[in-house]
């Protein structure tokens, strides 16, 4: 498969197309054909010096994906080949990065079905940036109790962030497979 590889850390001129081995899904994993990959400031920072995050070159960068499930590994029951999905990869560790390629393998529990109302390009722009914004909003409003809402811990943000009962059973900001429900920080939901 084709992938955009950073052979060594440094400037953008070190970004090159290469043929690499296509990954295979293991137990609890899915193989996704990447239709669109999001870009974030963290990608440029990691390209410049990924060793500070424990990464080693050569590396395929990129953290946000929208695509189509091609294969499912053993034990995956809620996703099937042909499902349109989106997600952000694990931020650190051996499974971090890798969206700048034709295919990517991810743990099924971090992958969400893409809303039909979003294009693949729009969906690829959501996970990392959207999850970061969501976390910042929810943590700050919880901390300050700011606003004039029936739930004072959330302020008017609780009206901005869509309620979980109006979403699919999967998190709209797939980040490590869990999402926080406004007003209930002590428990997670999927």
Would you count the extended β strands for me?
10
Q: Give the strand content.
A: 25-35%
User: What is the topology, as strand order, of the major beta sheet?
Assistant: 7-3-5-6-8
Cα-to-Cα separation, first versus last residue: 32 Å
CATH superfamily of the largest domain: Medium-chain alcohol dehydrogenases, catalytic domain
Shape: globular
Element-by-element helix/strand order: EEEHEEEEEHHHEE
Regions with little confidence, pLDDT below 50 for 5+ residues: 147-190
Question: Might you state the CATH topology name of the largest domain?
Answer: Quinone Oxidoreductase, Chain A, domain 1
Oligomeric status = single chain
Number of helices, counting only DSSP H or I runs of 4 residues or more: 4
Structural class: alpha+beta
Helix content: 10-25%
- In CATH's first tier, which class of the largest domain applies? Alpha Beta
Biggest β-sheet strands, sense, barrel: 5 strands, antiparallel
Mind telling me which CATH architecture of the largest domain this is? Alpha-Beta Complex
Task: Report the mean per-residue pLDDT as an integer.
Answer: 78
Task: Give the domain tally.
Answer: 2
Instruction: Give me the Rg, rounded.
Output: 18 Å
């Amino acid at each position: 498969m084709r992938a955009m590889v950073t052979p060594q850390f440094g400037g953008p001129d070190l970004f090159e197309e290469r043929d690499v081995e296509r990954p295979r899904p293991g137990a609890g994993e899915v193989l996704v054909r990447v239709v669109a990959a999001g870009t974030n400031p963290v990608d440029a920072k990691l390209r410049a010096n990924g060793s500070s995050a424990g990464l080693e070159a050569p590396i395929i960068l990129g953290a946000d994906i929208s695509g189509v499930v091609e294969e499912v590994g053993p034990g995956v029951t809620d996703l099937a080949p042909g499902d349109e999905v989106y997600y952000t990869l694990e931020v650190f560790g051996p499974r971090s990065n890798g969206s700048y390629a034709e295919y990517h393998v991810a743990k099924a529990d971090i992958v969400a079905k893409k809303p039909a109302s979003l294009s693949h390009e729009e969906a690829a722009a959501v996970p990392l940036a959207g999850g970061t914004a969501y976390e910042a909003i929810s943590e700050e409003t919880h901390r300050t109790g700011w606003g004039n809402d029936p739930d004072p811990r959330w302020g008017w943000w609780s009206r901005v962030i869509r309620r979980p009962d109006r979403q699919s059973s999967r998190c709209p900001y797939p980040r490590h497979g869990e999402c926080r429900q406004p007003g209930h920080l002590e428990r997670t939901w999927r």
